[in-house]
């Protein structure tokens, strides 16, 4: 699967309707972003079961602000609608593969339980 561009309008739907979604927040003027792009694209072609999305931070400033993006590139990983990874900086190919494996291997029952516990403590 190739990478897809997502916007504020389809961000939530993309995250909620797909099992694993990686999101690369980038900008055309960003050198590290341009260096990471081929690695991200190559990985997308190897993992058809993962959605590889890209958000142009210049075009999607409100979405970038809502996601608290302060440095690019920033890579986020979502599984079953839950943010499970967020880190600025370009990953090398091996690091990206390790991340994908780790996200696929997560115990989502435990992740959902922890998320529910965090929600209940913040709703007081």
UniProtKB/TrEMBL annotation:
Keyword Disulfide bond recorded: yes
This protein's record includes keyword Transmembrane helix: no
Keywords attached to this entry: Disulfide bond
A GO term, aspect molecular function: protein-disulfide reductase activity
InterPro entries to which the protein is assigned, alphabetical: Thioredoxin, Thioredoxin-like_sf, Thioredoxin_CS, Thioredoxin_domain
Superkingdom, natural source: Bacteria
All copies of domain Thioredoxin, residue ranges: 1-105
PROSITE patterns named in the record: THIOREDOXIN_1, THIOREDOXIN_2
Protein's UniProt name: Thioredoxin
Gene transcribed to yield this protein: trxA
